[in-house]
Amino acid sequence: MSECVCCGAIIPEGRQVCPDCEIKTRKNEERYNAFVTYPDGERHFGSGTMKEIAKWVEVELLAGADEFHMQKVKAGDKHG
Ligand SMILES: [Zn+2]
Question: How far, in Å, from the CA of 19 to the mean position of ligand 1?
């Protein structure tokens, strides 16, 4: 068993949040755009929640990226 990272509820092993929080975070979690730069000038772009970005950046940094930039996606950006 493990604990919900949001509210501390006991949840089955392998999950990070309880069903309640999962629904809430899906609706409300802020999204970010991010990119990393490599020493040769190449850029890789990513977007997602803070958690998704953190995971993505870790991989990119391990792959040799040396700079990381991140910007919050403004709410209400649903048109395009
Ligand atoms: Zn929870």
Answer: 7
User: What is d(CA 51, CA 80) in angstroms, rounded to the nearest whole number?
Assistant: 24
CB atoms inside a 10 Å sphere around CB 18: 19
Supply the DSSP symbol for 14: T
Distance CA 68, CA 3 (A): 31
Tell me the CA–centroid distance for residue 63 and ligand 1, in Å: 34
Span 35-67, pLDDT tens digits = 999 999 999 999 998 889 999 999 999 999 999
Torsional sign, CA 39, 41, 47, 49: positive
